[in-house]
Design brief:
The protein is an alpha/beta fold. 32% of the residues lie in helices and 23% in strands. Strands 1-2-4-3-5-9-6-8-7 form a 9-stranded mixed beta sheet, sandwiched between helices. Strand 1 and strand 2 form a beta hairpin. It is globular and about 40 Å long. Bound molecules: zinc ion (ZN).
Length: 236
């Protein structure tokens, strides 16, 4: 069992407005909006904890929220959902309490977390979305990228962050075409059951899924996630 109360406490200690968008199995799902200092910001969406047994994503989101983002807020507004699957987080399961993989359910109408996320996102369009994940079998990090204009940034991003830790050189095994070493295309054959493909189709010009190896220390995994985020934003 992991302690979700500690996550809630860290969120409450932030000097940021904290919205509870709904609860699942009595666990609140939070959403924070970091409003830009400019009138014409680009909208960015950051999500963690879609898979409950991948805690580095949640950690990365919490570290993002706790740091000073003043420079980024001159250009961007952020919508941030730190933990999409709190019951999975608590019980250390990939799936939610009902045994459902949320990341394969975005065309399902009855999966609570999916319904809650869709309602929270509403009609919002994002310039860029990042979804933090982990891989138990990987020896290094890798990325999935989808971009409507197909001008991929993933190869440059992977190169920029490999000082944090090595790129995984194994094939992703997920039936995804290579863009570059350690960067795979969000494949159209996946449909829109996954969060990132769903967002790419309906809500976002550009999506990246980061995957860190669970064997790395938590801090290194969180640093990699944030390194990818910051590098991607540097191109906007
Ligand atoms: Zn995952």
């Amino acid at each position: 069992m992991r302690d979700y109360v500690k996550i809630i406490d860290r969120l409450k200690r932030l000097d940021l407005p904290l919205n509870i968008i709904d609860t699942v199995n009595d666990y609140p799902i939070h959403l924070l909006r970091l409003e830009s200092l400019t009138d014409i910001p680009k909208n960015i969406l950051i999500t963690g904890g879609v898979h409950g047994d991948e805690p580095a994503g949640v950690e990365a989101v919490l570290q993002f929220l706790a740091r000073d983002n003043t420079e980024l807020l001159k250009r961007f507004s952020f919508t941030v959902i730190p933990c999409v699957n709190p019951s999975g987080y608590v019980h250390d399961t990939r799936e939610n309490r009902d045994g459902i993989d949320i990341n394969r359910s975005f065309e399902e109408e009855k999966v609570r977390e999916v319904v809650i996320l869709k309602r929270a996102i509403g009609q919002t369009q994002f310039s860029f979305t990042i979804d933090f994940h982990e891989d138990y079998e990987a020896t290094g990090f890798y990325l999935y990228e989808g971009k409507k204009d197909e001008k991929y940034l993933g190869p440059k991003i992977a190169n920029a962050v490999k000082s944090i830790g090595p790129i995984d050189t194994e094939d992703s095994g997920e039936d995804a075409p290579d863009i570059a070493e350690g960067v795979y295309k969000v494949a159209s054959k996946w449909g829109t059951q996954g969060l990132a493909p769903y967002l790419l189709h309906y809500h976002s010009e550009h999506v990246i899924i980061t995957e860190t190896p669970t064997t790395w220390p938590l801090e290194q995994r969180a640093a990699l996630h944030l390194g990818v985020l910051d590098t991607a934003l540097s191109y906007y």
